[in-house]
What we know:
Distance between the termini: 9 Å
Shape: globular
Strand order of the largest sheet: 3-6-4-5
Strand content: 25-35%
Number of strands: 6
Helix content: 25-40%
Amino acid sequence: xxxxxxxxxxxxxxxxxxxxxxxxxxxxxxxxxxxxxxxxxxxxxxxxxxxxxxxxxxxxxxxxxxxxxxxxxxxxxxxxxxxxxxxxxxxxxxxxxxxxxxxxxxxxxxxxxxxxxxxxxxxxxxxxxxxxx
Length: 133
């Protein structure tokens, strides 16, 4: 039995690519640091938002797997984007990337517009937490 339960009340707008609420009954939390499109050498890879999103998500999931979790264990993810309009324009493409790498068990999510990220070339950063049994 999964320690996470996703809640999407009928009286709210149907969620697309996120859950309105996630309750956790697990016994171990994993807090995931912000991940950008850094490669092993500490360089930002990818020119487009979609390319950077894919690498940032892969980095987040690599940290989660190393901690013993899987994408289905994600309870919350926050996306920080330097251009929210660009993020919205590419939402379908980013959703395909998410489903390919993380599946369809969506965590509670938010997209936050920021002026810039730690690495100036970064267009997107993801952080979050997971609940493991």
